[in-house]
Amino acid sequence: MQVINYISELKSIVGEYRKQNKTIGFVPTMGALHEGHLSLVSFSKENTDITVVSIFVNPTQFNDKNDLKNYPRTLDADLEKLASKAVDIVFAPSESEMYPEPDTRIFDFGNLDKVMEGAHRPGHFNGVAQVVSKLFSAVEPDKAFFGDKDFQQVAVIKQMVRQLNLPVAIVPCPIVREADGLAMSSRNTLLSPVQRQHAVLISKTLFESREMAKTMDVKELKAWVVANINKDPELEVEYFEIVDDTDLISAKSWSEPNKKVGCITVKVGNVRLIDNIRYNS
Ligand code: PAF
Fold first, then answer.
1. Quick check: pTM over 0.85?
2. Is 37 labeled as catalytic in the residue annotation?
3. How high is the pLDDT of residue 281?
């Protein structure tokens, strides 16, 4: 496994593989790797010849300085995990390598970056688009693998790829969950043992809501999910939306044509956890 810190070096190594007609798979991460990330690596290894993983905590996507400061950083452990999965290349650039000068680009993805995470974390998706477009230009992957836990992020990145005509296929991969159902997240490590026990109510409620959806209308179900989670004093729902799975427009009824996804963000103390569940699929 080669660990590379510079874009020029990365480009020349990947370029050599490309000359040998190898396909390039890419898994962008911010480190603090868990089984969810490693499942993306497995999808990449199954579907492409060479797998590149990036580790970079991108400052431009954090709208909260404390969140950036507290984001877990575990580079040595991450490299061990990636080596055990026989990843070919790890790209771990510095901030000055990625942003030699401030990135002033402003993206507009219509409704996709305005709702849910976009509304609650102003500038977040602009920062994601800035860094992912830079990473795509550094790696030039054939396929890039993203976790469906960040459902809205996947929608935004697909739209960015369409807007910029980038020659990369975006491959969404299933959410990986802990044994009790909690969606895996780097932020789970920030939970106290007590908070961790309470956090399971998020996925439990989402799973139950699939059953409730058989008898409740959209409005009733939204209210039920929020109330069921908020009754736990350790948890506070920031938003729960049921949206169309392509344009993320808020659903009014189950009979609308597109499939529906319930997207939630819950604050557990200072830690924001997100999750989602598909309904009529
Ligand atoms: O999902 C993440 O970890 C980040 O948003 C990403 C895609 C690596 C960009 O920094």
1. yes
2. yes
3. 67
